[in-house]
Amino acid sequence: MAAGLSLSAACQPSGESALGQRPTAYPAVGESSIATSGPAARRALIAAAEGAAEAVLGYDYRTLDQDAAQTRSLLTPAFRRSYNNFVGRLRVSAEKQHARASATVVDAAIIGSTATRASVLVFVDQSLSTSAGRRDTGSSAVLTLDSRHGRWLLASLETGAPKQPVVDARPPARAALAAAAAVADAYADLSWQHPTADIERVLSLSSGEFRAAYNAAAPELIRRTTESRTTQQGSVIAAGLDVLRADRAQVLVGLTGSTQIGEGQPSSHAVRLVVTLERRDGSWLATALRVVPTPDG
User: Hey, which end of the chain has fewer CB within 10 Å, N or C?
Assistant: First the structure.
């Protein structure tokens, strides 16, 4: 119904599959605060992104015009035109099906920012109610915002890999983001054809309690993967920095995933991770990993 802007793609639990319950949480460290351009400025950017995402992805057929009028004030002129087209397409079907959608940002982190433009990764839970019933889903989205007259306005919203994201220019930040994306990609990939190699890839990018816990789970993962002939794959959408200190970082990573069991059809799902890293001997290694569940999980 919300074609082009809806995040209500079919999802399945990130931790549960034909392989059984994979480890989805490990001891986390660090605090959720970064002070690169100032804590207040970063909080303002995150708040603007969260508010814009929830407004664009939420609507009520009974108050569509009022909701749209309020949402337009959060958008750049160019994106406002796209949003107007979306509302126009939505109107007939929303009224016919008594559709109501709500969106809640459950976590967000900055991919990169300048004084005038920023990219933000958000984890969104969405609920869509129609005359046929209710559906709850979760996904990830990348928001690009422009600074106009002291306000951050939404310039684009993408549910796939962004075309031209703003990147963090600081070398330590870029290294931490790349390391988190690598371990997330490895964690999301597991094939019955080479499970040992896939697990070794995760272990090579990790350390501490996370590595120990994943290594302990490896024999059972290999057995279940091989017996069920399951292949799980993931593709990183984006990674956003939540915490950065001298030797410690926390990164949000959003992925699209698919699972195929035997000769069956692949099923798509969202994977949302919070990865904690520590820099050891010059390399960023994952020391904690948490799966952020989707509402239908």
Answer: N
